[in-house]
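Hi R.,

Here's the chain you asked about this morning:
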Amino acid sequence: MKGRVYELPRYTFAGLATCGPTIRVGIFAGIHGDDLEGILALILFAQMLTAKPDLGAGYHLSLYLICNPTGYEDGTRRSRTGVDLNGQFWKSSRAPEVQLSQAELAGRAFHGIISLHTNDTKACFFGAVSDQSLGHEIMEPVFQAVTAFSAHYRPPIFNGFHPRKGAVRNGAGILSGPPLNRRRPFEVILEAPETCAAWLIISLNTILKEYRKIHLSKTPTPTTTQSKL
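And the predicted structure, written out as tokens:
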């Protein structure tokens, strides 16, 4: 709509404290304007966290429901200016939607970044992670959880990757942390078929649970000393 000012709304969830440091994760949906399953999944996930806050214990979550507002309004994959936002990150893009998201990615020092997508071409689920070690530690439990949820679901081969092994993908322009950061966050891409928002919700729950264990295992255990009299 001409003359309208668009924003990138951010919803935050501060989980219950745990024995380790707080884990900051950004979850992004609606990067493509017609990724409706990702948007719905993130809304339902936020409601679930409100009802059961222990699911997000130890986390500070930043939720971005609609990263492409004009595309969402128009029901199109691209923005109203014809840009596919998912190929524009950290490439000196002039798209305001990309610049707003990049400012969040650069300023919030996330430990992890998760982006949600709808796969409208094939009836299959896809997950990719930026770190090979996390492919086993995070993505394997994700696909086990999704498979258990749907008795008739069998993880297929998709884009040359077998989901059970956890694909590693670091495509240019895809939503990710600042490339020059010394500490790169873990980055996960999830794609679910239309009408399968539940698979994304299950995946988010599993990622939080599994990464919490990984993070706590790497946190130094406090030691106590005794003074001699």
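The helical segments are 36-51, 69-74, 96-107, 132-149, 197-217.

Let me know if you need anything else.
M.
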